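just leaving the lab so this will be short. what follows is a protein written twice so to speak, once as letters and once as structure tokens for the fold. can you read through it and tell me how you think this chain folds. anything you notice is useful, everything is just below:
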Amino acid sequence: METLRERKKQRTRDALLRAAVELFTSQGYEGTTVDEIAAAVDVSQRTFFRYFAGKDEAALALVEMTVERFVEAVRARPPHEPPLEALRQAVLEGWYSINEVVESVVPVELYLRMYRVIESTPVLLAAHLRRSVEVEEDLARVIAEREGLDVDADPRPRLAVAVFSGVMRMTERQWSTGADFSLDRIRALTSLYLDGVGPALLGDWREA
């Protein structure tokens, strides 16, 4: 059970994150300072750095929340699902349940706008892509564990995740630069592009 102190710390972190995202989306990442974020919550710069290593960490925090939820969702998928189907279902259901993940901090619409800031800011996009590489390795190990494979001896878990990640990267890029920047659109694009992946990876590996 959370203590009063823990709840207070969480509220402060959420307030700082919300202020950061509001400023990033209204005046740009480069145009926002840590001092401005801290001032918006009426705390010191030192307090900000107790919760975030820098403003880049704050800028990527919402995406990190959804990524962590996604990895756990893949781990929890029914064991009979083939690997790529487990990844597909986890990401599609994640888009439907995203409100549960982010709305305790910011409205979903603000989360979506933050995605555009990340895509259009080189330093944030580079950090996002670096983190994606780490997530791919986590997912490959989850898939290998589900299938009873040694991830370092069998290339298929990393191959499946690489294909999936490539499709998702293309989906994010198309979505974030398109005219229709809605949740319905990202769901539709995700389904469309993942359904285009060939049957070799979609099939049940246990039947091979």
About this structure: The radius of gyration is 19 Å. Residues 22 and 110 are 7 Å apart (CA to CA). The chain has a mean pLDDT of 90. The longest helix spans residues 122-147.
